[in-house]
Write a structure and sequence with these properties.
267 residues; Transferase(Phosphotransferase), domain 1; three-stranded antiparallel sheet
Length: 267
């Protein structure tokens, strides 16, 4: 048909590890079932000889993590737009009873057409699943892990919202909110420490950005957004106001017809 696709093949070590192999197969089957513009598509899970592979949508672009690693910072509006699109994908997963459990900048693909795609459902599970506190499944994800997941408690869609909030912080600052000597130290920080208003103010965050980060990363799950839909509605409302204010600012700065504009300032 001439369509360009991407192939994701299971590495040899994945095939040897029963748990890793099961995660690969589970992700493949899940992606073949899911149909949402904010989630990378897959059409076929197959085996050829000793190789298991997944035929997937080819996306021209890069991940949010790629940009961060280049030293680039997202503007507040741009980062909130990424979060909004990711939240729509999470809302779809939640409607299917699925918790992603690995939301992070490396799993947010920024397409060249401006759309955002959620990647890697290898750790996805049904709602209220028990978290993992050690072993391979938490490798590389501790920096974004919700406190309840770090404790090994049952997790739901609010854990994904927390991870998305940490990703928001990382995108606009280029830094992680909590670090440590090892994975367990980082997870302990997510359980015990919080992003205070004073700490966010020191970084010159706008009140709007600070509001979203604090609410999304609240340690108490009851204070957090309770579902992606609630986050989406709040983001849409606040971003609309943000854009209206920006446009009004452009209009008020426009010099009156027939008047000279003084260099360096607007009348």
């Amino acid at each position: 048909s001439g369509k360009v696709v991407a192939l994701k093949a299971a590495r040899e070590e994945v095939l040897r590890d029963e748990g890793a192999r099961e995660r690969f197969l589970r992700e493949g089957k899940l992606l073949c079932e899911l149909k949402h513009p904010g989630i990378v598509r897959a059409w076929k899970l197959a085996r050829q000889g000793d190789v298991i592979y997944l035929v997937m949508e080819y996306i021209e672009g890069e991940t949010a993590q790629d940009r961060i690693l280049r030293g680039e910072r997202f503007s507040e509006e741009e980062a909130l737009e990424v979060v909004l699109q990711a939240a729509r994908a999470l809302e779809y997963l939640a409607s299917r009873g699925i918790v992603h459990r690995d939301v992070k900048p490396g799993n947010l693909m920024l397409s060249r057409d401006g759309s955002v795609k959620l990647l890697d459902l290898g750790l996805a599970a049904g709602g209220r699943e028990e978290g993992e506190t050690g072993g391979e499944e938490t490798s590389g994800t501790a920096y974004y892990m919700a406190p309840e997941q770090a404790r090994g408690d049952a997790v739901d869609q609010r854990a994904d919202i927390y991870s998305l909030g940490v990703s928001l912080f990382h995108m606009v600052t280029g830094e992680l909110p909590f670090e440590g000597a090892d994975q367990r130290e980082v997870m302990r920080a997510h359980i015990e420490k919080r992003l205070s208003s004073a700490a966010l103010k020191e970084r010159s965050f706008s009140p709007l950005l600070a509001y979203f980060i604090q609410k999304m990363t609240a340690k108490d799950v009851e204070i957090r957004y309770q579902e992606p839909g609630e986050l989406i509605r709040d983001l849409e409302e606040k971003l609309k106001g943000f854009k209206e204010i920006r446009e009004q600012g452009r209009v008020t700065r426009r010099p009156a017809k027939g008047r000279k504009r003084r260099k360096g300032r607007f009348r």
